[in-house]
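Students often ask what a 'structure token' actually looks like in practice. Rather than answer in the abstract, let us consider Two-component system, OmpR family, catabolic regulation response regulator CreB, a protein of 229 residues. Its sequence is given first.
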Amino acid sequence: MPKILIVEDEAAIADTLVYALQAEGFVTRWVEVAGEALALLESEPFDLVILDVGLPDISGFEACKRLRRFSEVPVIFLTARNEEIDRVVGLEIGADDYVIKPFSPRELAARVKAILKRVAPRTAMESAAGEPAGYFRVDLMRYQIHFHDQLLPLTRHEFRLLETLLGQPGRVFSREQLLDALGVASEAGYERNIDSHIKDLRAKLRAVAPAAKPIQTHRGLGYSCSLER
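Now compare that with the structural description of the same chain:
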């Protein structure tokens, strides 16, 4: 069953959420602070996070920013703040929905179901991507790529570049197309930084398998990746 992480410092609200979600068949885990939640999300998979904005250690907004550095798990913000700017900020930093207190537990459970249904195709894609491809294994949910069964210490940009190349083995991607994969406009003067990222990626791959050369350079064109063993 889908596994939901509840991050809420008020026990009465958390109890209401746990009861409503478990009544719908969800598995729940409750923590009171963002730090503990982030550690959990790095170590075990969850299908969705319900995240209070007003937490005692760091705000839910800041917690979501940190979460998005390593995971795309769906997030619902739960807050008493009803200003439009708060809702806009919450959605812009990566939340999937925004629920105002006081709330209807049944409505919140329905929102959880709707989000999980919407991301189901992405989850299926992630499962497929998690299958071995040559010596690579891509985990889109955790922003991780394993090479020869070793986790690569990738930055966010390095992950996006390698995941893009692995998504279409053998295809030659131009620097402009790779910039698009990073979400960077080509006119931002960033093109040559792609070369630097590729150099760093190759160094990290060689650290695992010195003889391997999966990333190929096509002079004047761009880069491709081979999955051949």
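One point worth highlighting: The first helix runs from residue 11 to 23. Ask yourself how you might have guessed this from the sequence alone, and why that guess would often be unreliable.
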